Amino acid sequence: MKKIQVDIKDALTGSLAGSLETLRPEGLSGLAKLTDGSGEGADFLGWVKLPSETSADLLDDINATAAALREKCDVVVAIGIGGSYLGAKAVIEALSNSFAAYEPAKTRVLFAGQNIGEDYLAELKDYLADKQFGIIVISKSGTTTEPAIAFRVLREQLEQQVGRKEAAARIVAVTDAKRGALRTLADTEGYKTYVIADNVGGRFSVLTPVGLLPIAVAGFDIKALVAGAAEMEAATLTGADSDALNYAITRNALYRDGKKIEILVNFNPKLHFVGEWWKQLYGESEGKDHKGIFPAAVDDTTDLHSMGQWIQDGERSIFETVLSVKTTDRELRIPRDESDLDGLNYIAGKRVDEVNKMAELRTRIAHVDGGVPNILVTLDDVKEDTLGQLIYFFEAACGISGYMLGVNPFNQPGVEAYKKNMFALLEKPGYEEATAAIRAKLK
Ligand code: PA5
Q1: Which atom of ligand 1 is nearest to the CA of 144?
Q2: Which of 255, 303, 367, 424 could form an S-S bond across to 435 if both were Cys, CB 3.0 to 4.6 Å?
Q3: Which residues are catalytic, by number?
């Protein structure tokens, strides 16, 4: 069942009213490149049919590994950065109780290797000191500096706490089939491993073991997640009027009309990291050749008290895509108070979500009236299948949109340059020439 709806009526107005039809051939050509591999970056299209082609055996195996980790561990640390981090973080945060830390019966999934914060890592070590913990280390290249540092530090601690043999039973590596330091280490130590296919780039890998294993460890239903994505895959690849196609066309029409910044807005704090995942997906895919919509994200109503001013009144170079969730899991009404000193009795008895929805509606109207085009993406709920649909919707639209923009949506030369510069600056063996070049520049 389709659980997300996309409404662009407040985005393509005035001179852009006919864009959906005029730009449709370009959009369809982008879609065709995803399915026939005739566009740039065709080596990285493994995600396109991934949901429908994911085997039940793989999902069962991931669930079994997750169950084994849950059996042994109170905490599992997922180590990774960028595409090897954000998808799992987004789904787990969206589905978790906001105060999951206070649910001692559950295995907590924590994250490391997504920064090089010394205090962060030291505090995590302290936290883990009296815990039964395990590690999922995720790196496609197997050489990225941030996760490699975190893994070395936490692996040492785990081996000290439970011994090398037991540590090996609590470490799972998700990496390339053959290449990279992590692959060598995993094979040497005998860790359980999962492979990230060569043809799936990091930011498109949430529906591979990269995302699925941490999500399963956190106790969520990865079969429903993948099934939701498979439904959206079918609707997108067979439809000439799909939501993904229309979203891709709409954002390109707006970009060509001078709207250079897209703000993804949520009115549900659990979706904060969906915004972070989306920023990586679109930022890394489209920001190339001095082109691309700048992806930003805000959490409302929180950010209405900060960024709201800019959005309402700043430069008119923005458009918004609002993630609106129809239903909440819980029901909470605002109590009546006899003294009414806070003056809130006028909304006593109303659901908190009713007030939130009014804020959402009012904000959308005010922003549209203020010259901010609005794309509305409505989610029926925040459950695994809906999130699966949303993930595939954004991935497919990103591929189509990147091709419409005229870039290769599937490389990330800027990120690779950062990684190489890090190796050079840290004087990694093999990077001597680059080190000398950087030193000369810094003089
Ligand atoms: O999307 C990407 O390719 C990047 O964000 C990578 O996911 C990120 O740099 C981590 O790379 P790796 O998984 O090789 O450690």
Answers
A1: 15
A2: 424
A3: 284, 305, 419
